[in-house]
Amino acid sequence: MDQKSHGTPPAIGVATPVPYSAAATAAAPYQAYHHLYHQQQQQQQQQLQMFWADQYREIEQTIDFKNHNLPLARIKKIMKADEDVRMIAAEAPVVFARACEMFILELTLRGWAHAEENKRRTLQKSDIAAAITRTDVFDFLVDIVPREEGKDDAIPRGLAGAPTDPLAYYYVPQQ
């Protein structure tokens, strides 16, 4: 006779399966956040790889060096601000203009990823600050673009590894 069909309790001393252990239930949010964090990091890494592949392709295909998105006169003026610089070759501001454009594009892409993580569609100063904080290459900007106090207090470092506490990564302090 099947005990479950009659609604009678199981016999004493007979082990009944427990669907979830207490430990598994407690670890579930951690694992979910870790999995989500890992997915976001993979997606961001793919976007950066595509970005740089596109930049490389665009550079290889460039034949017109006369049109620029940034003003060459301004770049040349900034270069001449260094008193050791006496002469500037004609191609130097062109190369700087392209390098500056790529720098701005990558920083924007990384900032945009932070805005999307926070479910926003507007890029904010705090997103740029977070991108700077997360990326070792941008360490020289940490003092120039300070983080806003009280926002993004727990920003993990680097794209490759998981944060020490994934729950802190997704916690957004409410003011």
TrEMBL record:
Domain Transcription factor CBF/NF-Y/archaeal histone, first and last residues per copy: 69-132
InterPro entries found in the cross-reference section: CBFA_NFYB_domain, Histone-fold, Transcr_DNA_Rep_Reg
A Pfam family annotated for this UniProt entry: CBFD_NFYB_HMF
The entry's keywords: DNA-binding, Nucleus, Transcription, Transcription regulation
Superkingdom of this protein's organism: Eukaryota
GO cellular component: nucleus
MF GO annotations: DNA-binding transcription factor activity, RNA polymerase II-specific; protein heterodimerization activity; RNA polymerase II cis-regulatory region sequence-specific DNA binding
Keyword Zinc-finger: no
Cellular localisation: Nucleus
Primary location recorded for the protein, binned into one broad class: nucleus
Protein family (similarity comment): Belongs to the NFYC/HAP5 subunit family.
This protein's name: Nuclear transcription factor Y subunit C-6
Organism the protein comes from: Cocos nucifera (Coconut palm)
